[in-house]
């Protein structure tokens, strides 16, 4: 019984640890981004290729 609980805890912790690392790989550092689709961006003002909204300047104070 202890091995089942230990195995479940190991799998759960592994999933939690791996889920956070993926998002940092996808994130790109653009100067202008779409507020609805943050993965869409550019180095100059423009429009989002998915929804047509204007790209806004990303907050660089962080």
TrEMBL record:
Keyword terms: Signal
Pfam families listed in its UniProt record: HMBD
InterPro entries (UniProt xref): HMBD
Leader peptide range in chain numbering: 1-19
Protein name, as recorded: Heavy metal-binding domain-containing protein
Species this chain originates from: Mucilaginibacter calamicampi
Location of the Heavy metal binding domain: 31-57
């Amino acid at each position: 019984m202890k091995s089942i609980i230990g195995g479940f805890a190991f799998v759960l912790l592994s999933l939690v640890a791996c889920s956070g690392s993926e998002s940092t790989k996808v994130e790109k550092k653009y100067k202008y981004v779409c507020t609805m689709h943050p993965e869409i961006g550019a180095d100059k003002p423009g429009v989002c290729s998915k929804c047509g909204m204007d790209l806004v300047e990303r907050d660089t104070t962080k």
